[in-house]
Amino acid sequence: MSWTYEAPLEHMRFVLEHVLDAPTHWKACEAFADLDLDTADAVLEEAARFASEVLQPLNSTGDLEGCVREADGRVRTPTGFPAAYQAFVAGGWPALPCDPAWGGQGLPLLLDAALREMLDACNHGWNMYPDLLHGAYETIKAHGSDDLKARYLPRLVSGEWLAAMALTEPQAGSDLGQLRTRAEPQADGSLRISGNKIFISGGEHDLTDNIVHLVLCRLPDAPKGTKGLSLALVPKVLPDGSRNALFCDGIEKKMGIKASATCAMRYDGATGWLIGEPHRGLAAMFLMMNSARLHVGLQGLGHQEMATQNARRYAEERVQMGRAIGEHPAVRQLLDRLDVTTQAQRVLAYRAALALDLSEQHSDRAVREREKRFAALLTPIVKAFCTHQGFHGPAAALGVWGGNGYVHEYGIEQTVRDARIAMIYEGTNEIQAIDLAQRKLLADAGATAFELLDALRAELPEQDPLRDFIDESRTHLPSWLNRVAQDGAHLLESADDLLHGLAHTLLAWAVGRMAAMANALPDEAAARQRALATAFIRHAVPQGRLHWQRALAATAPR
Amino acid sequence: MSWTYEAPLEHMRFVLEHVLDAPTHWKACEAFADLDLDTADAVLEEAARFASEVLQPLNSTGDLEGCVREADGRVRTPTGFPAAYQAFVAGGWPALPCDPAWGGQGLPLLLDAALREMLDACNHGWNMYPDLLHGAYETIKAHGSDDLKARYLPRLVSGEWLAAMALTEPQAGSDLGQLRTRAEPQADGSLRISGNKIFISGGEHDLTDNIVHLVLCRLPDAPKGTKGLSLALVPKVLPDGSRNALFCDGIEKKMGIKASATCAMRYDGATGWLIGEPHRGLAAMFLMMNSARLHVGLQGLGHQEMATQNARRYAEERVQMGRAIGEHPAVRQLLDRLDVTTQAQRVLAYRAALALDLSEQHSDRAVREREKRFAALLTPIVKAFCTHQGFHGPAAALGVWGGNGYVHEYGIEQTVRDARIAMIYEGTNEIQAIDLAQRKLLADAGATAFELLDALRAELPEQDPLRDFIDESRTHLPSWLNRVAQDGAHLLESADDLLHGLAHTLLAWAVGRMAAMANALPDEAAARQRALATAFIRHAVPQGRLHWQRALAATAPR
Q1: Residues of chain A with pLDDT > 70: what percent?
Q2: Is CATH 2.40.110.20 the right assignment for the domain spanning B162-280?
Q3: In this complex, which of A320, A408, A409 lies closest to B175 when CB atoms are compared?
Q4: Cα Dmax for chain B
Q5: Min Cα–Cα distance to chain B from A145, Å
Q6: Active site residues of B
Q7: Which of residues 369-398 of B touch A (CB under 8 A)?
Q8: Domain ranges of chain B
Q9: CA A401/CA A407 separation, integer angstroms
């Protein structure tokens, strides 16, 4: 009954092959034309082995040991972490979704999503280090000078160097307009960076020789607010091999992901180079936000999967009152709800990854543009819902262990602690809800949402109650838009419920689609898939209705 | 913006004086006839000072230090814990609700409830030690021999000695029928106790010289299952001053309440004495279950209050996007929901404490019997709902701090970790739900529930939507009973939703009653009370309806 990971490869394959029909989509993308399911399978099996055999055994020890900051500012990660990272690099994993022009393998983000889900499930703390690579890669690729690209991209793609994102300052959490870090242009074209940043994940560590910091800062002539932010590349080790003037002044004592060094960083006249245009730093960073937010959503999915499969194994083996506790109705219902939500989250998150792939690679421009819209709409929902569930699912699952669940050695309590941060960083879930309501729904008067819901409902059989629920939700959206038109303040007050209402609607599609494609599975698995749909209709659909009802309800007097 | 405690004395007084009309009830109890509100106020003010000045400063350090088990089995509590306990004893706090015949102060459990709420809010880990006293006191008082009473009650009432409850064994969590610890009768009338127990809170520590263990065990001729359990009093130090053969073999590494020593205990032929009849140990322990479960519910209330008031202070002081974050609609709504739920939980938990008082002390036998029924019905609801909310409330409140909420020094992350255990121990919340459904509702065909709901609705003004919600709920109860009559399995499958449906119904009474009595408050406070009722109607009543709907819904196919 120990805490272990069995990668959900069968369900992943079912989602790729039948629920999302990925091979058909890949054929329409020149970059993926040679990819088939067997290759994808082989990649995922290898990833599963790495996650379960190399990372998972380091999860509990990493939590207990935590990171240590030495007196000289160096940070030591827990035992085994550097070796695991070397194995990760040797396996070529960082390069998986990167452009072959920079040494990448050019595989879809969809497969990268499955890889990340497994890494997060097994060791969220460890995965914080490489998780930041891709965002830095995308930002430099899109906005860096040729010189910066040549100097940094190959070594980020290979994973030889890691990256850190330096945004937050003590006075500026979600409010980036208050950032103060200064950048002074030098005669040689470089910048001199001075300021203090907090909450810098992987700002300092011992996994790689160099760490490439992307630092939000202000040039001397910068306008106030977010429109005066520039982005600088500030490496720990300079091209001439000397140590740059950036220092870790402390690491945070946190609720969870204790193996991830959350650094307070001091840039003490450090040398850096501008990425992109002056004062356009936020725009450069926004580029990577869709994938970064998807990655955080995958952390939630990983925790939910890990909690669900371990709770099920425990419940099958632990006997109380003469039978396995999994046979007690309250436990059985909880496990079913966890199962169906995990699976539906996976479908939803992978659909968002597919949208990102198609928006870049599909041969048909109309599809590229449609999928770009879908990705923009899905991203805040995946980020917020999957991390919400990624905390609340494990928090509920903990009860399956009874008192043992509260004890570290059983594993689940760490999952609950680790999972909570994902609701906060990369834009809090409240910010995701506002992004959805304001920029994704109000901005186009719901057009993209209608387009998506119409496309999804068409994938379900007629007379499916889940299709009915989608239709029902579709009628709520115009009501919400009207409500906001009458009372602008309603948007902010209803955004959370709106996001959860829409998330439940999308989950309903995912569940309905899995049931509809269940015939492709062996009999027993197919029956199970249909039973889960029934459980979802009984438990989650009324919950979704409640969110819609609240999203539409009259606001309390102000 | 540091983590502090301002005891909610004004709201406590409002609840005692106006919402529950405690003075009128006290006048009808001989034991409390001399008690007035001024005395009660003085007691609560003194308790608030102790909690906020002595205990609260030890909360974070207690978590970081935790307990240490020395090689010889002794357990050292965190710095300051023994001194705080000595101050607690010197203040006479353990004796507050105890019988004057044994050195107690004879004050109502209602005041004891307010005291415990404050202790739990400030330092749950520390309060684990004295929290167990009252249960041991009640059990020995009701079932102990005269000799045991004389030897142990005065020193438990004064707090000179502490107590521990030794129930759980590795193979027997919620299933006490599987307990194996043996008790062999000796020629001198004592018992020789041998066995291993786990999860024994305060089984060993350095706060008192002696620790009185109440151990569930089996006599040689015991029937199998729970009907063969006896209860033994096993002191750490024997009457002759020698050390008894009970040893702490280890302490658990837990998610929270790290300052509370959760011990694995070994009774190695330890000397003990029977409490009550042979094989009737569980009945003897059940006596204290109502108050013990109420105490755990108060832990949830304490956490909820602490999270709510600190979140509000932080939200008022922290400025982002040009204004205090408390003015942002999502935060404002969250704070209102936390506020109204905290207040309603307090009313409900205190009502349960009042029921316990009246069931023992009221001069009218009919009232005593009615209140005994009410206490039995309210107890599982208070335990399960207040601890559910006591975890989920702080877990949501953590978001108000953004990334800071994840960092230990801001306080809230510890509250979330500490609070989770209360959903599990003293009977998991799932067990509370089954207790409610089976023994409190089905057993008398809902008679007590109808009696309670009728009494409560009569306290609300006509045409109050909250009264309508109680009436609505009242119609659901017969439907649920019918459903269970048709399909026995439905009881276990719907118990959780039933408990939460009924809890929301009782909260609706509490909120309506507060609004109805708001005229007794200053104008601003009265207006606030009414606004909170509106927030509750908008957010919580639909949630309550959802639980009732699920409790009645057709069960998924089995």
Answers
A1: 99
A2: yes
A3: A320
A4: 79
A5: 33
A6: 426
A7: 391, 395, 398
A8: 162-280, 429-552
A9: 9
Per-residue pLDDT at A557 exceeds 70: no
Which residue type does B254 have? K
Tokens of A105: 């393998």
Segments of chain B scoring below 50 in pLDDT: 558
Backbone Cα Rg of chain A: 23
Nearest by CB: A402 against B173, B406, B539: B173
CATH topology assigned to domain A142-153+160-279: Butyryl-CoA Dehydrogenase, subunit A; domain 2 (2.40.110)
Cα separation, B166 vs B247, in Å, equals: 13
Rounded distance between C-alpha atoms, residue B25 and residue A166, angstroms: 62
Interface contact flag, A255 B413, Cβ < 8 Å: yes
pTM of this structure: 0.97
pLDDT in tens, A233-254: 999 999 999 999 999 999 999 9
- Inter-chain touch A423–B328, beta carbons under 8 Å: no
- What are the angstrom distances between the C-alpha of B391 and each of B13, B414, B420, B443? 25, 11, 6, 30
Task: Tell me the backbone φ, ψ of residue A194, rounded to 5 degrees.
Answer: -135, 130
Per the rule left: phi > 0, alpha: psi between -120 and 50, beta: everything else, A269 is left
Query: CA-to-CA distance for A167 and A285, rounded, in angstroms?
Result: 10
Contact B395 A252 (CB under 8 A): no
Q: Is B168 on the interface with A (CB under 8 A)?
A: yes
Q: pLDDT tens digit string along B210-234? A: 999 999 999 999 999 889 999 999 9
- DSSP states along B268-320: EEEEEEEESSTTBHHHHHHTTHHHHHHHHHHHHHHHHHHHHHHHHHHHHH-EE
Which position has the higher pLDDT, A497 or A172? A497
Backbone angles phi, psi at A476, to 5 degrees: -75, -30
Distance CA B67, CA A394 (A): 27
